[in-house]
Amino acid sequence: MPVLAAANLRLDAHAIDYVLLAFYFVLVLGIGYLARKQVSSSIDFFLSGRSLPAWVTGLAFISANLGAIEVMGMSANGAQYGLPTAHYFWIGAIPAMLFLGIVMMPFYYGSKVRSVPEFMRRRFGTGAHLTNGISFALAQILIAGANLYLLASVVNLLLGWPIWVSIVVAAVIVLAYTALGGLSAAIYNEVLQFFVIVAALVPLTIVGLYKVGGWDGLVDKVSGGPGGAAQLESWPGNQLTGFGSNFLSVLGLVFGLGFVLSFGYWTTNFVEVQRAMASKSMSAAQRTPIIGAFPKMLIPFIVIIPGMIAAVTVTELQGENKQALIDGGSAPSGATFNDALLLLMRDLLPNGVLGVAIAGLLASFMAGMAANLSSFNTVFTYDIWQAYIKKDKPDSYYLNMGRWVTAGATVLAIGTAAIASQYSNLMDYLQQLFSFFNAPLFATFILGMFWKRMTPAAAWIGLLSGTASAIVVFLLAETGVWDLPGQGASFIGAGAAFVVDIAVSVAVTMVTKPREASELTGLVYSLTPRESLKRSTTGEDAGWYRNPGLLAGIVLVLTIALNIAF
Questions:
Q1: Residue 305 located in a structural domain
Q2: Among positive and negative, which fits the CA dihedral 312, 431, 384, 275?
Q3: Residue 3's pLDDT is what?
Q4: Which residues of 3-12 are buried (b: 16+ CB within 10 A; e: fewer)?
Q5: What is the value of pTM for the model shown?
Q6: Is the previous residue joined to 84 through a cis bond, with omega within 30 degrees of 0?
Q7: If we measure between CA atoms, which residue out of 404, 387, 456, 414 comes closest to residue 128?
Q8: Staple 160 to which of 5, 383, 418, 536, CB 3.0 to 4.6 Å?
């Protein structure tokens, strides 16, 4: 693992920075301790007793995604690819978030399932349920390891501790408050962490733009560097996708990222859905992802632009160094695009502000890892342990089991952090994982929700076939058989997984027996009474500003405007 501290790139943190960090850690652990007093059952631990207001779950929804990979990974993408990275937000997130709120949450929340895999069990039976549960659990451990590795990299840069020591210390902090207070501790900390992250990144963006002469100055510098003016327009995004053809690039972005990867992640990923399930009503659950979409629109301006500024101002990432990294090599200093935000903080922020910025980064890492752990412990405890190993134990047994599972997941994440360390741009790694796990799940899920004929056998066979096809694309790209630079391999892999899953599911359905229609009420759109999907419009759910449809329409108009403007 490259150790930046050894390359004399240590952040110049002073006593005030450490005091701010210490205060932040005490606050985080305090929230975990207070949340523990509200946990008296497994539903309290895993789903916050379904009692939280929409504004809390909405901010937690977006903060859970605003983890290390989002902040550092998108800044890395900004440094490497420029503005096309905004597609991960405006094309690759918001439409799917709105679809989740308007279409999917009534099914999830109305059925009172405790997890997405449990919904799969009710619709398709044990085969698809177990396949989904195991694949989801594996994905969360891998992603938690990536969050943990980046968190440890910051501690290494700040204190000079060896990476492995930093990983263990960081893991223990996250484990402490997640195991104490369960999902409530994770969610309330995620709300806090959202504001800390914004407070850290907004000053960095403003100071960075001032240093390069404003937006016009940034345009001039990026245009004259590696990548050129193409990094200043979000479309067609050829450098990001790796395609030479504008048409194929746009197709890959719209279908691969905007449809398969995006909808696969946001509509079926229990990390996000779990936050909405913790809401106190159907209306609040629907509003959760829509409320999160408002800040999601603006996040590119505080994560991508700092990456672009770092690429033209930080010595280790400029000129030949940047070109070497783009070409797949390494900079002489050992720096990678993953370090863009850290190096920009080192060069621009005074002490005190630097402490806030470091706390913001650590907040993002802990938010992401805690989200992975809280969703992992729910799925493993309910969908694997309770469903197949220990079925009829008292509720207190599963509550205690959830805490032990959280500890075990943390240990496993420490191991998978080593895998993440092999990628110079962790967004490449993340998108590969999504193509393996989320894309085929979305195909199975959406087909089963709108096609009552689809059978249980088709579901699990389709899932496995889709995942296998994405792995084949990955191996072809890794071995050089298929030249797919950038993140094109993940886009193609996601598309292949989706298409293969659909094709196999349809073929298997035609030769297997479907379930009785009476068993699918509330699980298939055409068989579900409309009144069971209606939200409350009285009390705390009254008012036009609490109308999910209206809020979604506002978000959609603003997102279209951003795509046109940039």
A1: yes
A2: positive
A3: 43
A4: ebbeeebebe
A5: 0.80
A6: no
A7: 456
A8: 5
Tokens of 458: 């088709």
The single-letter code of the amino acid at 549 is: G
The CATH number given to whatever domain includes residue 457 is 1.20.1730.10
Report the alpha-carbon distance of residue 479 to residue 327 in Å, rounded.
16
Which 8-state DSSP code applies to residue 279? B
For CA atoms 529, 532, 533, 535, the dihedral sign is: positive
- Residue 204, number of CB atoms within 10 A of its CB: 26
> Among 132, 99, 123, 105, which Cα is nearest to 527's?
123
Identify whether 64 is part of a domain.
yes
Crossing angle of the two packed helices 353-378 and 54-65, in degrees rounded to 10: 100
pLDDT digits (tens, 9 = 90+) for 423-464: 666 666 777 777 788 888 888 988 988 898 999 999 999 999
**Which amino acid, one-letter code, is at 283?**
S
Q: Is 289 helix (H, G, I), strand (E, B) or coil?
A: helix
Q: Residue 159: what pLDDT?
A: 64
37 domain-assigned: no
Residue 10 falls inside a structural domain? yes
Token output for 293: 């979409």
Number of domains present in the structure of the chain: 1
Contact 148, 369 (CB under 8 A): yes
**pLDDT score at 320:** 62
- DSSP 8-state assignment for residue 73: I
Residue 279: strand pairing partners: 52
Which 3 state secondary structure label does DSSP give 52?
Answer: strand
Distance of CA 120 to the CA centre of its chain: 21
Burial environment of residue 451 by CB neighbours within 10 A (0 to 12, 13 to 18, 19 or more): middle
Q: How far apart are CA 42 and CA 394, in angstroms?
A: 10
User: Residue 388 sits in which domain range?
Assistant: 4-32+42-565
How many angstroms separate the CA atoms of 175 and 429, rounded? 24
Residue 429 near residue 150, CB atoms below 8 Å: no
